[in-house]
Amino acid sequence: xxxLKKMERxxxxxxIRDLPIIMIAFQVIGYTLKVISPDVLYAICFDPAKICHGQxxxxxxxxxxxxxxxxxxxxxxxxxxxxxxxxxxxxxxxFYFNVYIIGGILIxxxxxxxxxxxxLSVGSAPxxxxxxxxxxxxxxxxxxTSILLAFAFTYPNAQVLLYFIIPVKMSWLGIFEGILLAxxxxxxxxxxxxxxxxxxxxxxxxxxxxxxxxxxxTPNQGRRPSxxxxxxxxxxxxxxxxxxxxxxxxASGTASRQxxxxxxxxxxxxxxxxxxxxGRTELDDDSLEFRYCSKCEGSHEYCQDHLFTHQHIKNxxxxxx
Length: 321
Fold this sequence. Notes:
Blueprint: H1 3-11, H2 19-36, H3 38-44, H4 48-52, H5 58-61, H6 72-92, H7 94-122, H8 125-132, H9 134-137, H10 141-154, E1 159-162, E2 166-169, H11 170-187, H12 191-210, H13 231-238, E3 290-292, E4 301-303, E5 313-314, E6 317-318
Antiparallel strand pairs: 1-2, 3-4, 5-6
């Protein structure tokens, strides 16, 4: 069994809930400190020399460091990163999303603490310059970038409106972000920045190599934080697979899929997925991806073309109140 699955069963109940909003809250705190009390940032930034002298809180507090100046575009991007982070948390489950984010922080801490004595021993001007700029390079910018890469890998065919205006496919946005990272890696003279880029990509690669089946998980199948099956799931499992009727009232075989409510939904011709908007199933196109919407009332599944563009169903009607 995958080690992450074992960890989830044992520690899933301790996963941090609503981590995406906590991450954005940290950014807001960081930008607020930058405006009203910049000196505080010097006390919480990543400084390996001071960490070695006992200021170990810096191993965590650097996540409050704002990665850029606060502009209207920064605010828009914060909303965008919150949205994609929330989607990943809903799809993967709290525990797996925690592992990805906290793993990125730990990998950065370990990599930087190993790099510090190496740069000191080298003693060249570029190495010492990299140490001097280490606190400026170690921010959540590249962790946010790794979230975008993870989202593009999980939802490659999804289309989003960049800056609420530009329609772009996530696969292309992920490729562009990868090219941008490669350009920054080649262009920067700072070894520290090169290392931070490598560590963020390493976290992305390690995580997805250890969770190869994660792209197959839909939001309703996302691993529960406690790692325990619900009573409805246990009841359905113990019954050996009950027979349910589909929307047209016709029975069509043994239960093959559970919806977000814990009940089984099946479709004609043995289809396991169907888009609420266009009615397409995986039998129409095996490249289609389907996800449940957590904002719609009831159990409503959408293909990648309509997941982000549909009106949320409230009180049984799209856009209802």
